[in-house]
Design goal:
Cyclodeaminase/cyclohydrolase family protein, 72% helix, Cyclodeamin/CycHdrlase, Formintransfe-cycloase-like_sf
């Protein structure tokens, strides 16, 4: 995360209360936030919403045998959606903290030391937020995978869309982790060494689910 030059504008009611047009306008504007971190979290939120929607379409009489599983998936997906929205707000807050840390005075040795510590703390938090988004994407992808065999076939493509959105959340989060970790001391950066392997695993699972959805659509 490079040093921001302007203050973020997204401060009102958070992403959960922001009209999509306003959000996209802010995303397109020359302001530091929202940016890729918020996009990643909102990918996860959309993935969770799609899973919940398919599950709610799988509450017909003929689905009665699967109702306990479906109800659990609905509840988990709704919680995941709200959590992902909160992470979008957390990313904006983390970016703001990084900017504030870079603006601290550094005229004396004491000030410089304080500023460096504040920057490291802020960058660490700015990496932790996308790491949490990866956790969310992982969970949502697992729910989508569990739902596919029992979900309403009339909306099966939305399970594939959820998988694609979860993958996008994960790979975008990796970028945001790496840009922050590169400026951290090695002992702090070490906490994120497993991210690339985890992203590869999530990507593979998302692609597998995508192919399974295609086979279902094609009647294979």
């Amino acid at each position: 995360m490079s040093e921001p030059t302007q203050s973020p504008q997204h401060t009102a009611s958070g992403f959960a209360g922001s009209p999509i047009g306003d959000y996209l306008g802010e995303l397109a504007a020359k302001i530091p936030a929202p940016g890729g971190g918020a996009v990643a979290a909102l990918h996860a939120a959309q993935a969770a919403a799609l899973v919940a929607m398919v599950a709610r379409y799988t509450t017909r009489a003929k689905d009665a045998d699967h109702r306990p599983v479906i109800d659990r998936i609905i509840a988990a997906a709704d919680i995941a959606r709200e959590g992902a929205l909160a992470l979008a707000d957390a990313d904006a807050a983390a970016f703001t903290a990084v900017g504030a840390a870079y603006k601290l005075p550094k005229g004396s040795d004491s000030e410089a030391t304080t500023r460096t510590a504040a920057i490291h703390d802020a960058l660490l938090e700015a990496a932790r937020v996308p790491a949490a988004v990866i956790d969310a994407a992982d969970e949502i992808l697992a729910l989508a995978t569990e739902l596919l065999p029992i979900g309403n076939p009339n909306v099966v493509t939305d399970i594939g869309a959820a998988a694609a959105a979860a993958r996008a959340a994960a790979v975008t989060s990796q970028l945001n982790i790496e840009i922050n970790v590169v400026s951290l001391p090695e002992e702090h950066a070490a906490a994120f060494t497993e991210v690339p392997a985890r992203i590869e695993e999530i990507t593979d699972r998302a692609e597998t689910l995508h192919q399974e959805v295609l086979r279902a659509v094609r009647g294979g």
